[in-house]
Queue: 4 jobs
Job 1
Amino acid sequence: MGMECVVYMGKVDMERQRPNVERMRILGARVEPALSGSMTLKDATNEAMRHWINNPTDTHYIIGSVVGPHPYPDMVARFQSVISEEMRKQLITLQGNPYPDYVIACVGGGSNAAGARRPVEERADCGFVYYARHFRSRSGEQPAVLHNFLQSYDSLSAITLPADNGTWSVVLTTSSRDKALRVLREPDRWHAALARYPLIAHWADGEPISGVDVMAGIEDRYRRLAIDGQPVASGVVAVGDAWACTNPSAGRGLSVGLIHAQQLRNVVREHLRDHAGFAHTWHEHTERHVAPFYRHQVAADLTRFAEMTALRNGQRPAPPDPLMVKVASAARQHADAFRAVLEIAFCLALPQEVFQRPAFRELVERAPAELPPPAPGPDRDQLLSLLS
Ligand SMILES: Cc1cc2nc3c(=O)[nH]c(=O)nc-3n(C[C@H](O)[C@H](O)[C@H](O)COP(=O)(O)OP(=O)(O)OC[C@H]3O[C@@H](n4cnc5c(N)ncnc54)[C@H](O)[C@@H]3O)c2cc1C
């Protein structure tokens, strides 16, 4: 490819692997010995990184092992996972199931072992884009919330979040694929849109302290360090956002992180010295007590995104889940049902726990299957003609 190739290698490793060094030289690479530290892989990586940082405009850094900063270990492990696919196929053919008794790998190099049992990761763009503006009041007061903090309107949602020192934010959320509504990034159009929603127009009654901040490309991400119930590693604990996170519009990330931290405390108390037991129990507690919050949020967001997509395409959105219609109806009519719904929204109880309570089920069964009247505001066509 006509590019200069410099390979950093620990001096000790160069001596140990002389034939490899000669082969790299024959193929045109310059092999630089790393002379610092233990003169092995870690030191060679440091030297290569140092060179890259000092020459960022004409140097590309590549590495074939799971060391160094993100995303390189992740990339290498992903490429190496073909090994695990192949092992799985061969195990099924040779012994009828994909479970080996042992995996023996040259962990010194790292990369093939990482690929052999790669943790599960789900990662997808949530599809929303936020148009946020921040305000301050002279009196230190926040604008009143006359309806909901987070309210869905046709193909747009709106939320206000109070902050300290008389400041707050107002966020308009749309589908990131909705090109027609991208004009909301312009402050005058943003204000013109907000002014048309009577219950929230006053959220902009303050001194703006930012332009319209646009945020997209937000991922729902979930990691599981166990495959088929078997931990891929012991001694590694992913907690809070390092384990899973969703787009932040429901404002539940901190609560979920704290619930996860409580679970960690419980598992540490009982299994700290039992590595395999710890990894198993941690996986089980996470799936049982915390993962349902993640799944619940992702499902709610997918439903809202599908609604926005249908409206953008001029179609009628799918009818809402009849059970959820009755739950919302019960919450409007009965304080106990309202409190129970808040327990789910604020992560005080899992949805399945609340749904198993006989008193709550009775209130829901008795509630009429009636949708609330839509909050006042323009529909999509009216909004687009206003913004055009
Ligand atoms: C725009 C936005 C708005 C949000 N709004 C809300 C809200 O209203 N309510 C709510 O509950 N949640 C909200 N969240 C989610 C919430 O912020 C997160 O769920 C929460 O902060 C996760 O906590 P954590 O401790 O798991 O991770 P983090 O808060 O990300 O903490 C991880 C820390 O580790 C540090 N770190 C990373 N790598 C290393 C390393 N190698 N060595 C040392 N340190 C390292 C990082 O610098 C960071 O300080 C929002 C998130 C975003 C992005």
Note: Residues 161, 240-242, 245, 248, 251-255, 257 surround flavin-adenine dinucleotide (CB under 6 Å).
Job 2
Amino acid sequence: MKPAVDLHYSRHAMPAQCLVGIAILLAGYLLVDLVPWFVPTAQGADGRYTGKQGEIIIVKVPVDDSATRVQGKFLGRAVSFFPDTRLEEPKGFVGLLGIDLQDEPGTHELLVELKTAEQSRMLRYSIAVVKGKFHMEHLTLPKDKVDLDEKSLARWKAEQEQVKEALATDSQSKLWQPGFVEPVSGKRTGIFGSMRVMNGQARNPHNGEDIGAPLGTAVAATNHGVVRLTVDHIFSGKGVFLDHGLGFYSMYFHLSEVLVKEGEQVKAGQIVGKVGATGRATGPHLHWGVKLNGARVNPYALLDLPFKGTVQSAAPVPSGDPTSSVGAPAP
Ligand SMILES: [Zn+2]
């Protein structure tokens, strides 16, 4: 039996970005600029990081407490940094750099602006994006299953706009803590990033992971956050968007029931809904998605992050702390 999946929709094929890719590739050979008080560590010590499409890279900026703001930019997307409170790690700031599943493979630059009371300077990191291995699926379906009629198309567009608006402003403080929870432990379909070609038309790649589980199975929040949006959309069905702060969101779709309200604060592991097959789904499953600073990343990358366990040292930034503005999105 085929695992239950959803049939997401897109009218647009992806444009080729080869020239941009080549230009950035060349730029990647420029020397990296490292601060004098840089403490060498194994990963990224030479200012270089490598990651696959859909992965999350932990970028460490080893600055002391004098830093008042650390903010990065990668492929036009803001990357927020926050103080590294992991006990076993040297002092500094860390940023979660999401590599979008369609970021062009090659070397790209991560620019990090570092501000202290006395000075401001730019650090340049070289990020090598490696092509991820995603499935390609060709499907031939009855036309009415693939193409939306005018009314549905208008609805779909309005829903896209609603999501965009709801996630447009990132929360300024980091709400999550070490220790990510798998929302449902079920059968993973492993189709994150898979590309579908329906009746010869390229669709957007699958931007999350589908987890098969019986109807009504409890769906848990992967971490602390605020319910940014609850929906009942044509493709996603009943869904919950959680805001974990600093441009990090998790999504839970096709629910049979939503058990939280917009604006509500949730704890890691709190039940936000129940597994269903609402929207376009071939059977009960959870579509779990994560957006990190605008990049669509594999949600399971969260469970692999070196922010594990129930270490509570990453306490919320006390009010009045200058670092609380660290996540300010770039204009
Ligand atoms: Zn899905």
Note: The helical segments are 18-27, 143-146, 150-166, 300-303.
Job 3
Amino acid sequence: MSDQPETLSPGPSGGARSCRDERPAFVDLLPPCNSACPAGENIQRWLRHVQSGDYEKAWRVLTEDNPLPATMGRICYHPCETKCNRAEFDSAVGVNAVERFVGDEALKHGWQFAKPVKETGKRVLVVGAGPSGLSAAYHLRKAGHTVAIHDAGPSAGGMMRFGIPRYRLPRDVLDAEIQRILDLGVELKLDAKVDDLQAAMAAGRFDAAFLGVGAQAARRAEIPAVAAATIVDAVSLLRSVEGGEKPLLGRRVAVYGGGNTALDTARTARRLGAAEPVIVYRRIRAKMPAHDFEVEEALEEGVTVKWLSTIKRVNDRDITIERMELDANGFPQPTGSFEILAADCVALALGQEVEIDLIERIPAIAIAGGVVEVDPNMMTGAEGIFAGGDMVPGERTATVAIGHGKKAAQNIDAWLRQKDQHREPRHAAATSINTWYYSKTPRAERPKLALARRQTTFDEVVLGLGDVSARNEARRCLSCGNCFACDSCIDVCPENAVSRVGERYEIDTQRCTSCKLCVKECPCGAITMVPNMAAIIPTRATDTAPDRSLGCPAPQAR
Ligand SMILES: Cc1cc2nc3c(=O)[nH]c(=O)nc-3n(C[C@H](O)[C@H](O)[C@H](O)COP(=O)(O)OP(=O)(O)OC[C@H]3O[C@@H](n4cnc5c(N)ncnc54)[C@H](O)[C@@H]3O)c2cc1C
Ligand code: SF4
Ligand code: SF4
Ligand code: SF4
């Protein structure tokens, strides 16, 4: 940076230009939404195609990273929006709603994935057809490998089918997106539990394996109960509803837990006829792991919550709960004060554990804290056996599972080809946005089903955006860190040093006086000052968002 005061900096006269030590340069930066998406979607790039009405191109860009956009556009907790720069200006871009729109367009028009160009002859076994397994299978097949998925269940989808209720994810949407992956030539074997991984790999002559068996076993709690008490685990309850059963829960159902599973169970019970579903949770709302919008939707539907309460005993028609109070550190402590609550049934939603019997005979695979340890390439301690999703350390969401599947597939591909995985250096983060350039625009909210139908049917609750709303919502994107061809830098330059040459912008360094006006003017932070000796890189006028973020977070200790 020059230490000359700005008022004394060389003017447009030209003679002093060689003295300056900085000049403006175009950059492509990583937008915060992209960085936060666990699937590593290039959000800004596919939003650009939505803006121009090319929905198929948007879908093709989006599915380079995530093969289930219509599904994720319904169930992803959209961390991309939490990090969206626009949130500080008015409200975050509704990325999730637009993603769903793009996914639904693809289903409507029957767009298919391009088949792999070349077969590698390598065979990969994927164990589990949940989001991590489906994502791994998709990316591996696209790379030309022969892929077979073996799943213990009667249908593919994992917890997206047997956990998440259909009022949040209609099954025709899930089925169609899974079928499109299978149509790439992925083999799916159902009712095919893998008990011994090495035996299964040898029998199928597989060269590598990806494990995505999730966390299927419900965590239990030792609660004293009379013999006649009805206690069920929440995940089994949701699974039986998916299997077409209508469990007899009674009018008053108590759900024990504070996560999304507890919310889904209480809302399902409401739809099955329980007039008074109540969630019993030991902490306060601010500490609830469930997302706020899910709590709101549940409350709207008539679910109530007993905050700061634990279940002490289950009788045949009621439960005894103990009131808790927060200590100085904010942790709930028992008070010795009890209350009786009417309940015909108690559903335990206390989390799930990983079942590891299929790898018990492989001592090289380390288990710590009930989950499988993997290295930064998602490989377990056993060569050629990779794992992801709920069974490895990390956040347990479908989007993280999709990101793990993608990352593992890239590394399995590199391992099979005996190559180091080529990693582009991560682009620097986009931080500087000039919001004066924009006017405030309300975010397009998705409509919801009428309350009466929500309480009595499993019809989808949150509906989709229409064509115009989706396109307008995409237009709210500020294109953080990447040129969107507004021409402001051309207009503002007093030396006429910036020009557009076809698809590109260029700065004539002979004319430029390093006055920085273009840097200050650029709405999205796509021009920065660099040392004068740095290489000159013109930017493209369109489609400049970096091709990839690393996406899914590295596995972390829980
Ligand atoms: C009720 C509920 C609601 C949720 N809601 C959301 C949500 O809205 N959004 C979100 O992002 N996440 C949500 N989640 C979390 C999300 O569903 C999981 O994080 C995700 O499904 C994990 O994916 P996975 O591929 O690791 O495993 P899973 O989805 O659990 O799939 C594992 C698959 O492996 C199969 N399998 C298991 N053992 C074997 C074996 N030995 N051999 C062969 N197959 C086997 C199973 O049959 C299953 O199909 C929810 C979870 C639950 C329980
Ligand atoms: S998958 Fe989730 S985090 Fe990624 S872009 Fe879609 S909504 Fe955002
Ligand atoms: S404004 Fe657009 S590019 Fe910027 S964070 Fe939000 S969605 Fe991403
Ligand atoms: S001012 Fe406009 S045209 Fe110039 S780099 Fe920034 S976004 Fe691109």
Note: Residues 26, 483-489, 505, 521-524, 526-527 surround iron/sulfur cluster (ligand 4) (CB under 6 Å).
Job 4
Amino acid sequence: MINGNIFWLYFVIRRRFYLLPCTHCRTEDEIAKEVAVDIATLRDPEADADRAQKPEYLVIIGVCTHLGCVPIANAGDFGGYYCPCHGSHYDCSGRIRKGPAPLNLEVPVYEFPEENLLVVG
Ligand code: FES
């Protein structure tokens, strides 16, 4: 927990993504699907490439942008995250696709200073 926010950190092991404490995979097919989304159709338009510095890593703050519940990974109509509190569906890039949440799941400031090192904040 950093600055009161729960961070879901994905890291790659043989091109598989794991979410702590939940496990999630962002496969090459999922990445391709998110890259192909027409951002003009999105409520909060953001390209996948603008949300993930490396497509195989997705770093987001696990707090629903509606009223702050914690969404469930690998769930919802778009296979990303589902917030059961009021029914917000996010895709595998953490972008809001359906439900009352107004914005995408937040991407925190982060960097990869070295090949195997991720620094958040
Ligand atoms: S808090 Fe997530 S949908 Fe309302």
Note: Confidence is low (pLDDT under 50) at residues 1-6, 10-24.
